[in-house]
Design brief:
By secondary structure, the chain is an alpha+beta fold. Among the domains are: about 1-75; about 160-240 and about 260-395 and about 485-550, Cytochrome P450 (Cytochrome p450, Orthogonal Bundle). The chain is about 55% helix and about 5% strand. The strands form four sheets. It has a four-stranded mixed sheet with strand order 1-2-7-4. Strand 1 and strand 2 form a beta hairpin. The chain is globular. The structure holds protoporphyrin IX containing FE. Protoporphyrin IX containing FE (HEM) binds near residues 337 and 498. Protoporphyrin IX containing FE binds next to helix 9, helix 17 and helix 22. GO terms for molecular function: heme binding; iron ion binding; monooxygenase activity; oxidoreductase activity, acting on paired donors, with incorporation or reduction of molecular oxygen.
């Protein structure tokens, strides 16, 4: 009889461990039902104090039991190294994420513990590039539950967070149609229109300081709303009076925290006041989707495909699905591209020799009078590709995402000598991989030439080594599998083609029209120091002084 409470604790612990659920009722039953039942069955006198004390004792014992198990050799991940606080609770990692420096934290953990690190009780971070195809490839591991937390919902996550691989691929089909090469041609005009608007805006600020990071943020947000919903935002023209850009930034902070603690995100989703910016941003996305539905299809925007308007025999998906996927397009497409654009310009302004070379290539294909936004030359602009790739390598807009999870009720996964037990989440951090000297020589140097050497377009001997090189003799390492900016495999970034088209167009247009230099008094070291990783990374403001080029 004395062992009965311990038995109840063990049953509670095992039920929690094996049966994942977001149901508050079941959680409450497991947390409070057992001690109450036990007390009612055994106590001689039932008072509120007795019940409270029973619940308290039960909860403390349950927590201790869970902690002991997680730290013990009985835990299936016990052989993987990691800090004790990570092994004990996911809350530690979630708090690290709140500081926005998760990318550096993971990199430091890998430096200390090796390529496979336990970053949560049931979570591994993997930095071994050779494992990427097996984890993210066609027969890889399904997505994790993290987006339930970020989107504060137990049901219907956006496409990026669907755990059932078959369902995910079905949901991805309209995206793939809406972002296929044929569809991209439709968006040329939209990119061109917004790029021209950006150029005019910057022309008005000729000779003054322009805050490029903010401009690119507004630009990409307006463009994504055009592209996803056929319009709905004019941040470049009106600024941000409704604070949508702020909400997106603040919302992502909370979203990143709940990305780690998905069940807590679902709980907080029931208390809107606590996560106001995130809730308000989600409501804003809903308004855009509703307005687009009322307007109907006037052109082939992404909504046209997500709403299956291109397949008249199909019925529209549920409204909530359209809202969630619309928000995904805006969040996934605006912060990422603006972050990449800001990094490209930061890199050009801190590497004058690269700037000169890229300027020469832009001037060759876009001399004065050439249409600003024509995409026909992009294919041949090899140095432009190299510069963009290098910016994406050094400053990946998504620094730590690509989370997968071996389902709790599926068999574990064997990849070579690695065994990943059921219920384990796996993170593959692009930042740590792309700055690993085993994957790229001079990993912390901005050296676009590496991409041209790797593709055989120039010889190693003909490429000036990066300024970080102490000698011309070194082993050239270039492992493109480790280039994870857009992730890998059938669940990678579906918007890659659109993003690159947008980035190339803006870079060419701005370099054709303006010359840039860094704002006086701004310390370039601030750039890396102030980057924040909240699912998508936020970039510093990047103040620049721009002048109209006389030849353009
Ligand atoms: C430089 C710009 C961009 C970068 C670096 C980027 C990066 C990524 C990454 C790392 C993922 C995670 C994939 C995974 O879970 O393995 C992703 C997913 C996704 N991205 Fe992008 N992205 C960019 C631009 C865009 C744009 C412009 C769009 C929309 C037009 C977009 C839409 C999506 C969607 C819908 C997913 C989910 C794909 C899926 O789950 O199947 N992204 N992106």
């Amino acid at each position: 009889m004395d062992d009965l409470p311990l038995l109840f604790v063990q049953i509670g612990h095992q039920l929690f461990r094996r049966h994942e659920t977001y149901s508050i009722a079941i959680h409450a039953l497991l947390l409070f039902g057992a001690p109450l039942l036990l007390t009612v069955g055994t106590a001689s006198m039932l008072t509120f104090g007795v019940l409270l004390s029973a619940c308290w004792t039960y909860l403390v014992t349950l927590i201790l039991s869970i902690l002991l198990y997680r730290l013990s050799h009985l835990h299936p991940l016990s052989k993987y190294p990691g800090p004790i606080c990570c092994r004990a609770s996911k809350l530690w990692h979630a708090c690290v994420v709140l500081k926005g420096r998760q990318h550096e934290y993971l990199q430091a953990l890998h430096e200390r513990y090796g390529d496979v690190v336990r970053i949560g009780p049931n979570d591994l971070s993997i930095r071994d590039a050779s494992l990427i195809p097996a984890i993210l490839g066609a027969s890889g591991v399904p997505k994790g539950p993290n987006f339930h937390g970020s989107m504060l919902t137990a049901t219907n996550p956006p496409m990026v967070g669907i755990q059932d691989t078959r369902l995910h691929l079905t949901r991805r089909r309209p995206w793939a149609r809406g972002l296929a090469l044929s569809a991209l041609k439709e968006y040329d005009r939209l990119i061109g229109k917004r790029t021209n608007q950006l150029v005019h805006l910057l022309e008005n600020g000729h000779g003054t300081v322009a805050v490029l990071g903010e401009m690119f943020g507004y630009f990409s947000y307006d463009l994504m709303c055009d592209m996803a919903f056929g319009g709905g935002a004019e941040l470049m023209e009106e600024g941000d009076p409704k604070k949508v850009w702020c909400l997106l930034t603040e919302g992502l902070e909370a979203g990143a925290f709940f990305h780690q603690m998905d069940w807590l995100g679902v709980y907080f989703g029931h208390i809107p006041a606590v996560v106001k910016p995130l809730q308000t941003f989600l409501m804003h996305g809903k308004t855009l989707a509703l307005e687009r539905m009322q307007r109907g299809s006037t052109r082939r925007d992404l909504f046209h495909y997500l709403n299956e308007e291109d397949l008249p025999e199909k019925t529209s998906p549920p409204l909530q699905q359209l809202v969630d996927d619309g928000i995904l397009a805006i969040v996934g497409g605006s912060d990422t591209t603006s972050s990449c654009l800001t990094s490209v310009f930061f890199a050009l302004l801190t590497h004058p020799e690269t700037y000169v070379k890229l300027q020469a290539e832009v001037d060759k294909y876009y001399p004065a009078g050439e249409e600003l936004c024509a995409t026909k030359h992009h294919r041949d602009m090899t140095y432009l590709h190299a510069v963009i790739n290098e910016a994406l390598r050094l400053f990946p807009p998504v620094m730590t995402l690509s989370t997968r999870k071996v389902p709790a009720r599926a068999p574990g996964v064997h990849i070579r000598s690695l065994y990943i037990p059921p219920g384990t989440s796996i993170s593959i951090p692009p930042y740590a991989l792309q700055r690993d000297p085993r994957n790229f020589s001079f990993p912390s140097a901005f050296w676009p030439e590496r991409w041209l050497i790797a593709s055989g377009q120039i010889e190693l001997e003909d490429a000036p080594p990066p300024s970080a090189a102490s000698s011309r003799i070194f082993e050239f390492v270039h492992n493109e599998v480790a280039f994870m900016a857009f992730s890998h495999g059938p669940m990678n970034c579906v918007g890659k083609g659109f993003a690159l088209q947008e980035i190339r167009t803006v870079v060419c247009a701005l370099l054709q029209r303006f010359s840039f230099r860094l704002g006086e008094g701004w310390d370039p070291r601030e750039y890396e120091a102030t980057v924040r990783d909240y699912i998508v990374s936020s970039r510093p403001a990047l103040p620049v002084i721009l002048e109209r080029r006389t030849s353009s």
